[in-house]
Amino acid sequence: MTDPIPNQDPVAASSKGFHRRDLFRNAGGVAAGLGILSPMLNQTSLAAVAGESIIVRENQRPGTTDWMLRNCQIDPATKYRSPVIEGYCSHASIRAGETLEVKVSANPGSDVQLEIFRLGYYGGKGGRHIATLPPVAVETQPTPEPQAQRLMVCQWATAFEWQVPADAISGVYLGKLTALKSGQDSYVIFIVRDDRQADFVFQCSDNTWQAYNRWPSQFSLYDDGVNQWYWGGKSQVSYLRPYGRYCQIFDAPLSTGSGEFLLWEFPFAYWMESLGYDVTYVSNCDTHSDPTSMLRCKGWLSVGHDEYWTIEMFRNVQAAIAHGVSLAFFSGNAVCGRVVWDEATKSIRRVGVFGPPDGTNDFVEMDSLEHVRPYANELMGAHSTGPVTGGADWICTKEEHWIYRDTGMKNGDKIPGVIGWEWHGDPAPIPGLEIVASGPTQSAPDKPNGGQYTATIYPGPKGNFVFNAATIWWADGLSAPPGYMRPKVYTEPKGPDPRLQQITRNILEQARNMRHET
After folding, report:
1. For a FRET experiment, which of 108, 326, 344, 355 has its CA 20 to 30 Å from that of 461?
2. Is the pTM of this model over 0.85?
């Protein structure tokens, strides 16, 4: 929702201000470490787990770490933009065969190169090179004037057109822009989606990426021109602009242009693909506009920081539960802010809260928004509640539940630091709902803040289920891909944990083995 903790260095300008060994872990070392905790990483085991899914075949292709940025410099005057080289895509989500337009600005003008990578496991490298487009001359594009609701919509010239190959595999793709004159670089990000039947649909949380995107300077959904952490309806944000430097928890200039994917979601995707799970990817925008998007899977996944939803998203996901799809919210602060989508400007505006009027008391401006049903806990089992932020250990409360199978965990056993920095509580009175983990939250080590998180699971109508991990940081316990930065605020997760990995496998396998309508 918000982060009251300031960045470590609000005007940090480039990778030169950081030790590269702290920002980028050796890919081989990460793979080896992951292999110790997840022993099913060799290709024979991959095939056995996934039945030779297209994800297995895709991740057998050569990987590279060249997808990582080396020199993204942030303008200290704006704090958030990288004006030497920045861009955005015409589509948040695009199908194979369609044409992506990449809009780019360079200041000063420069020849610019675009390299395209698909993110995954790829032997621990984290990405595969897909294409390099010939350099083009790019000029400085205008910074737009704010419209009503402080909306910033760029209308930049198209620098690159790329027809997505007909055989492109669904996934999260990064475009790495490099200004050849200076050598500086930044990302654009987009999702390639398909319509095939798959075991799992992984929904990226890009509405939330945009909500916190302050590009070019203090123009997020949280900026009303006066306050930096405003929670009312006076701001609107568009996808038609670059993603600026990430503005919460820690300073991560080498993720600029990628939203929040590399921070909270990539470790989950990397781990899933390392095990060959049959997964396909969508955007929040797909969940909003395509009611059939999740009906083609056995399990639908919300990962990371999935705060901002439209009512259409809510109803479409409700329908998926009724259809027999299992849901797993490996996310925190999810389904909290209700937004409306404006197709003309590809933008969202906050209009309500998926929770009761007294559910969160941290932000006065929330009182100006609608608090009407449906509430998020009626969908997820639990939802955001005061004090919203905090951290905690994952504490087992139902050792006999199947999610703990083969973990060895007993009631009271803890996985340190898993809960954070935003979490879910206030479980709904849903028939059959069980609390599988719970505990008090804290504002700092040994400083309780009065919160109580609850991780829940409840049965669906057709043998399916809805699981709620109640944390943004679940993926930290699965893997540490190249470039991953571990958060440390309120609490500190400790990285890949075999018990958390097994819990996740149990949930995914339970969903995959369910029979449901197609």
Report:
1. 355
2. yes
Q: How far apart are CA 109 and CA 141, in angstroms?
A: 9
Using the structure block, give the residue that is written with the tokens 């290709």: 43
465-468 vs 447-459, strand pairing mode: antiparallel
Q: Residue 63 carries which DSSP code?
A: P
Burial class (CB in 10 A: 0-12, 13-18, 19+), 131: middle
Alpha-carbon distances of 228 from 130, 212, 213, 221, 399, rounded to whole Å: 39, 10, 12, 9, 43
Q: What is the pLDDT of residues 376-420, one digit of tens each?
A: 999 999 999 989 899 999 999 999 999 999 999 999 999 999 999
Task: Establish if 159 belongs to a structural domain.
Answer: no
Residue 194 maps to a domain: yes
Domain presence at residue 394: yes
Using the 8-state DSSP alphabet, how is residue 422 labeled? B
SS3 458: strand
Query: Domain span at residue 320?
Result: 15-63+187-512
The residues with which 329 forms a beta bridge, in sequence order, are 302, 468
Greatest pairwise CA separation for the chain in angstroms: 63
Distance (Å, rounded) from C-alpha 407 to C-alpha 36? 15
pLDDT above 70 for 33: no
What gap in Å lies between CA 24 and CA 254, rounded to an integer? 10
Inter-residue contact 387 to 420 (CB < 8 Å): no
Cβ neighbours of 54 (radius 10 Å): 18
pLDDT, one tens digit per residue, over 315-364 is: 999 999 999 999 999 999 999 999 999 999 999 999 999 999 887 766 67
275 to 67, 139, 211: CA distances (angstroms): 21, 44, 32
- Cα 8 from Cα 252, distance rounded (Å): 10
Torsion, CA 221, CA 223, CA 224, CA 230, rounded to 10: 80
DSSP for 371-395 reads: --SSPTHHHHSSB--TT-B-BEEEE
Distance (Å) of CA 117 to CA 176, 242, 454, 483: 8, 18, 38, 15
Q: Under a CB-based contact definition with an 8 Å cutoff, are residues 385 and 399 in contact?
A: no
Task: Yes or no: say if 134 and 219 are a contact pair by the CB < 8 Å rule.
Answer: no
427 domain-assigned: yes
Amino acid at position 484, single letter:
Y
